[in-house]
Amino acid sequence: MNYTIAVIPGDGIGPDIVEQAKLVLDKIGEKYGHTFDYTEVLAGGAAIDAVGEPLPEATIKVCKESDSVLLGAVGGPKWDHLGGDQRPEKALLGLRSALGLFANIRPATMFKQLRDACPLKEEIIGDDGLDLVVVRELTGGIYFGKRGRDHGPNGEEAYDTMMYSVDEVKRIAKVAFDIAMKRNKKVTSIDKANVLENSRLWRAVVEEVAKDYKEVTVEHLYVDNGAMQLVINPKQFDVILTGNMFGDILSDEASMITGSIGMLPSASLGESKLGMYEPIHGSAPDIAGMDKANPIATITSLAMMLRYSFDLEEEALAIEKAVEEVLEDGYRTGDIMSKGMTLVGTKEMGRLIVGKL
Ligand code: NAD
Ligand code: IPM
Ligand code: MN
């Protein structure tokens, strides 16, 4: 088969990790007889520098016309002085919205080889590591509510509103319950219903949706407790269902349990097969261009692309197995390095994974 992929390297370590991911996908194509056609497009700081805006119309068009989108990361200190809509991050938010990608799937799965990179004690993490999924609502909540700056009686003020509609909660809750049905049949919905009105609506809708999934156990946690539970007892979780901002924060936290933020892939999905695939981490300006970035999250994001957008399960598993084998051989980038292992750079890690395929 022939698949078209819009590729957004972006900023910072984005180009470094995307380069390795493409080599992995090329190898998959060669081995399994698929062609992956890449169209590289501009977004984020790179687009600001080239054409003066973070998300050019042409980029949205190419993404919409492609079978899926691969994104590295956007943003960096160079553009931090810019106002809200001019910032690189606006590209990411704009793409999620333009493509209708309301469901962000972030699996926090620990490779058993990375036990030593996990900062939690042995008795907390046990023998079988961590395997949970954060299902994060991605096109609503405080990220997309009414916002602005005013001059009020007390001087300058700024506001961001957090709003969810019943339908928005319903569709993301269904995604979480469907995923739970294929896993350990437990959904933990995380909100702030003791304070926020939209969280009370969220909780009520989740309870309604749960009635259609009798086999699934449902729990509700307040986000402050949820953040704490992730550290003290992460294995109680199967599927975490949460809103846009809480999901952003909790998935970074969960990623560290698996060893590093450089290990966590993501899929952003909507109603169609077109998805956007990206690591959950950012552009890591502190290590950009130094051949230090861990490309694994980007590479396993490709596995998610093959699985969710192209229904190529065997190929997806081949990528995940290749990553595991390289870790088993003891190779580590700096972020997951531990005693007795062999330190490698971004390019070498990519080359090793391709080698296993
Ligand atoms: P970050 O995720 O870029 O970096 C946080 C820390 O993790 C840094 O120490 C970094 O070196 C390390 N890190 C991240 N990815 C790594 C990898 N693959 N390998 C090894 N180490 C890695 O978060 P930040 O510093 O808060 O943000 C930097 C920029 O990225 C900001 O402009 C932010 O807005 C942007 N950002 C973009 C995305 C995205 O494009 N999806 C996501 C998060 C942040
Ligand atoms: C992420 C990032 C983005 C988010 C930013 C860069 C807009 O942190 O993808 O996790 O908050 O969604
Ligand atoms: Mn984030």
From TrEMBL:
Function comment: Catalyzes the oxidation of 3-carboxy-2-hydroxy-4-methylpentanoate (3-isopropylmalate) to 3-carboxy-4-methyl-2-oxopentanoate. The product decarboxylates to 4-methyl-2 oxopentanoate.
The keyword Transferase appears for this protein: no
UniProt-listed PANTHER family: 3-ISOPROPYLMALATE DEHYDROGENASE
Pathway(s) served: Amino-acid biosynthesis; L-leucine biosynthesis; L-leucine from 3-methyl-2-oxobutanoate: step 3/4
Binding site for substrate: 96, 106, 136, 224
Catalytic activity as recorded in UniProt: (2R,3S)-3-isopropylmalate + NAD(+) = 4-methyl-2-oxopentanoate + CO2 + NADH
Top EC category: oxidoreductase
Cofactor(s), by name: Mg(2+); Mn(2+)
Positions bound to NAD(+): 76-89, 282-294
Pfam families xrefs: Iso_dh
Record text on cofactor binding: Binds 1 Mg(2+) or Mn(2+) ion per subunit.
Recorded GO MF terms: 3-isopropylmalate dehydrogenase activity; magnesium ion binding; NAD binding
Protein name as annotated: 3-isopropylmalate dehydrogenase
BP GO annotations: L-leucine biosynthetic process
Chain sites annotated for binding Mg(2+): 224, 248, 252
EC number: 1.1.1.85
GO cellular component: cytosol
Keyword set includes Amino-acid biosynthesis: yes
Keywords: Amino-acid biosynthesis, Branched-chain amino acid biosynthesis, Cytoplasm, Leucine biosynthesis, Magnesium, Manganese, Metal-binding, NAD, Oxidoreductase
Chief subcellular location: cytoplasm
Gene: leuB
InterPro entries: IsoCit/isopropylmalate_DH_CS, IsoPropMal-DH-like_dom, Isopropylmalate_DH
Site, as annotated: Important for catalysis: 143, 192
Subunit structure: Homodimer.
Domain annotation Isopropylmalate dehydrogenase-like: ranges: 4-353
Source organism: Vallitalea pronyensis
Family: Belongs to the isocitrate and isopropylmalate dehydrogenases family. LeuB type 1 subfamily.
